[in-house]
Q: What sequence folds into this?
């Protein structure tokens, strides 16, 4: 009886101690640096990828018409406001003529005076011509001295010059009047195109300088996106490629577009290439100018090559490569990578062949001696 | 010969095992505390490993970018890339902030990485799900500790970012998980404030007569535009070509570019020696106190266990058992108690470690050292009990 109590106690003790020891061994081997690294495996596929470029831009008008007076003056009236649709040739506003009319009247009076001066010069010239002719005849009859005839000829020349001067003065004043009238015409602010008023920078009563814009008009049919692409990922950007544009305010929709041109000047500071993207059909309602737009430009598909996910690429000792699963463990293979698409697929130019099994995700950084444990999903990743 | 210790343990095995488990939990706490300290150091090293850099180029005379703020112009990397021995140079920005996702926000270190390809300095070195960033804007790779999932939309300052990849163990030196976003977005995030702040700044600039001159149209617009650009980054990560000594590459940068350069060793000194020095000392202090308390409790338990069977020991002495045998019994019991405690402690610490909010690193070397420390403490503690047992008068066995 005593022995059996003893045995029962021994068994109970073993029943407690054994699981503890088993757990301890498990814990020592399965956690910490001794534990195998969970990895997931992907196969190198040979397939074609469709690279795409991603850029950011703002919606801009292709042409902006900044309409303002040609001389300094004061705004008299404006007939349009921001958001109004205008026709080509429509009068948008007027500048105050101030003293322009008075100056025209003054010039008209001056014109009359000049015409009178012409008449006076004509009379003088007619008289001088007849005098000169008479004295020429008298000289023929030897009844006047040659000196007097020379004086009369000189008087005639002076009178004719005075007439020419008076006539020119008339044309000058006429031209002045025409200029003032033309200027009076430019006091009207006229839209050169059919479009939309986007800004009204001055209001009636404001004095503006020559060349300063009073009203800005754009043509809403010619909106484009001024897009910027990082140079490092802009390989293949060219005109006429199709693009999809996503506006920040309508980010659930994508608008079709195409690359109109790639600017010959790049931005040296931000290391970006600039391109203009036009809409196939301008979105309705019209997006405001300056709205942020995301542009995805699709490039033609590339021929099939070995392709790997970009998450498989590692950097070891300054070399870029991937961990390849071999029969006896892991081997780091240097690769040369080529083009990639926006879904993270990368072409391998050299180093891998289709069908090889490579490490895609790993729980920890790997080395050649790592023990690995292939899983479907890395522990802790929620779907 | 029968084992006295074994027989005695069997006699009161339940009490013995439960005492061992209790002791084990205490040892578990001590091991975890050591793990917390190792975790802090590991976080600092992980930050350096994950950056993939051999040299850190920062603003002159700063301890940046992790321990102090540092800012350098974002076009300096080109000059550094052309220096001899440099294999790659990348701009990087670091900004600790709250990252919002829905109604929740997570404290994270937002890292701006330069456009390029995976494997470049600054890029996350390995992923556990998803893919690396492919678009130049509005994509993010987040550490799994943030709790974000693939496809989540995060809000960082003004913009929304889609989580396209997840990493693991990408943390700042203070253990905050990292969120990687493209550099241009990160520069904007560091600089561009919320709408109200921008409006107020515009209003202030407008009120300044130096910038708002009626006779210079366009000046105000130009000034406002210049206020919304940021051409600074926090550091330049440099990878050196194989075969070049870090110091030989760093020296010309220091001399000719007039910037401060740290190599791996210098950075570790800053992170571990300066950034976490106080917290590490704090944890170290705790560790010492816990070790002392554990030792005291072990001594106390063994003392009590011996006291409980003082009568039996007196009987043993009465029947002429040698002192050595009695001493061996007590010491064996103490060692077995220590061993059970250590096993339970190690198991408890291992299972508890993943549930800590910050990284707890249990190193095998620490465990081995811990085992010997526990055994040593048990031996010392049993000496007190042995002394008591040997002094006992055999007469007590029959006396009252």
A:
């Amino acid at each position: 009886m005593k022995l059996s109590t003893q045995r029962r106690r021994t068994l109970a003790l073993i029943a407690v101690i054994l699981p503890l020891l088993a757990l301890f061994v498990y814990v020592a081997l399965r956690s910490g640096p001794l534990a195998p690294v969970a990895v997931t495996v992907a196969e190198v596929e040979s397939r074609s990828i469709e690279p795409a470029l991603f850029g950011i831009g703002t919606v801009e008008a292709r042409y902006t018409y900044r309409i303002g007076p040609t001389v300094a003056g004061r705004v008299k009236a404006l007939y349009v406001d921001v958001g109004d649709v205008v026709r080509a040739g429509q009068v948008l506003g007027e500048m105050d003529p101030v003293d322009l009319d008075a100056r025209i009247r003054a010039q008209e009076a001056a014109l009359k005076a000049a015409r009178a001066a012409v008449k006076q010069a004509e009379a003088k010239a007619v008289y001088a011509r007849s005098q000169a002719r008479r004295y020429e005849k008298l000289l023929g009859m030897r009844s006047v001295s040659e000196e007097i005839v020379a004086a009369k000829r000189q008087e005639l020349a002076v009178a004719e010059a005075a007439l020419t001067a008076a006539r020119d003065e008339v044309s000058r004043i006429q031209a002045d009047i025409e200029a003032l009238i033309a200027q009076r015409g430019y006091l009207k602010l006229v839209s050169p195109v059919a479009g939309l008023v986007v800004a009204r920078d001055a209001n009636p009563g404001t004095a503006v300088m020559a060349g300063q814009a009073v009203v800005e008009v754009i043509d809403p049919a010619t909106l484009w996106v001024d897009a910027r692409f990082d140079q490092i990922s802009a390989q293949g950007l060219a005109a006429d490629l199709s693009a999809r544009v996503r506006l920040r305010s309508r980010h659930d929709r994508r608008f079709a577009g195409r690359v109109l041109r790639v600017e010959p000047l790049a931005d040296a500071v931000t290391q970006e290439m600039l391109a203009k993207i036009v809409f196939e059909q301008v979105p309705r309602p019209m997006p405001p100018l300056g709205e942020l737009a995301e542009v995805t430009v699709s490039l033609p598909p590339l021929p099939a090559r070995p392709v790997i996910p970009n998450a498989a690429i590692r950097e070891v000792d300054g070399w870029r490569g991937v961990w390849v699963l071999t029969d006896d463990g892991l081997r780091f293979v240097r690769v040369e990578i080529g083009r990639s698409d926006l879904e993270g697929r990368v072409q391998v130019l050299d180093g891998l062949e289709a069908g090889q099994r490579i490490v895609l995700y790993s729980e920890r950084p790997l080395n050649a001696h790592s023990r690995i444990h292939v899983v479907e999903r890395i522990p802790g990743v929620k779907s | 010969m029968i084992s006295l210790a074994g027989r005695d343990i069997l006699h009161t095995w339940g009490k013995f095992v439960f005492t061992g488990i209790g002791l084990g939990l205490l040892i578990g706490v001590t091991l975890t505390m050591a793990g917390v300290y190792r975790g802090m150091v590991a976080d600092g090293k992980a930050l350096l490993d994950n950056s993939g850099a051999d040299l850190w180029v920062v603003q002159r005379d700063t301890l940046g970018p992790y321990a102090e703020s540092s800012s350098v112009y974002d076009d300096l990397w080109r000059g550094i890339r052309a220096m001899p021995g440099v294999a790659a140079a990348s701009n990087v920005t670091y900004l600790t902030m709250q990252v919002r996702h829905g109604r929740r926000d997570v404290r994270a270190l937002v890292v701006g990485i330069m456009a390029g390809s995976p494997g470049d300095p600054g890029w996350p070195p390995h992923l556990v799900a998803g893919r690396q960033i492919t678009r130049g804007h509005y994509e993010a790779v987040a550490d799994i500790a943030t709790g974000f999932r693939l496809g989540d939309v995060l809000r960082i300052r003004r913009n929304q970012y889609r989580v396209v990849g997840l990493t693991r163990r990408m943390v700042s030196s203070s253990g905050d998980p990292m969120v990687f976003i493209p550099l241009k977005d990160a520069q904007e995030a560091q600089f561009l404030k919320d709408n109200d702040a921008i409006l107020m700044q515009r209003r202030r600039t407008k009120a300044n007569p130096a910038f708002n001159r009626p006779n210079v149209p366009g000046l105000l617009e130009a000034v406002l535009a210049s206020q919304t650009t940021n051409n600074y980054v926090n550091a330049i990560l440099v990878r050196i070509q194989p075969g070049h000594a870090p110091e030989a590459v760093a020296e010309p940068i220091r001399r000719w570019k007039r910037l401060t350069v740290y190599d791996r060793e210098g950075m570790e000194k800053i992170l571990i020696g300066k950034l976490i020095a106080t917290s590490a000392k704090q944890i170290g202090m705790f560790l010492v106190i816990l070790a002392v308390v554990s030792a005291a409790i072990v001594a106390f338990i063994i003392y009590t266990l011996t006291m409980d069977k003082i009568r039996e020991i007196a009987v043993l002495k009465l029947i002429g058992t040698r002192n050595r045998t009695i001493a061996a019994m007590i010491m064996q019991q103490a060692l077995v108690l220590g061993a059970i405690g250590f096993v339970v402690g190690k198991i408890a610490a291992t299972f508890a470690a993943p549930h800590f909010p910050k990284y707890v690193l249990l190193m095998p070397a620490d465990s081995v050292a811990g085992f010997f420390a526990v055994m040593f403490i048990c031996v010392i503690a049993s000496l007190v009990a042995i002394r008591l047992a040997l002094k006992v008068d055999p007469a007590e066995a029959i006396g009252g």
Observations:
- Chain A is about 30% helix and 35% strand.
- The CA atoms of residues 43 and 319 of chain A lie 21 Å apart.
- Chain A touches chain B through 57 residues (CB under 8 Å).
- The helical segments of chain A are 2-30, 100-140, 146-186.
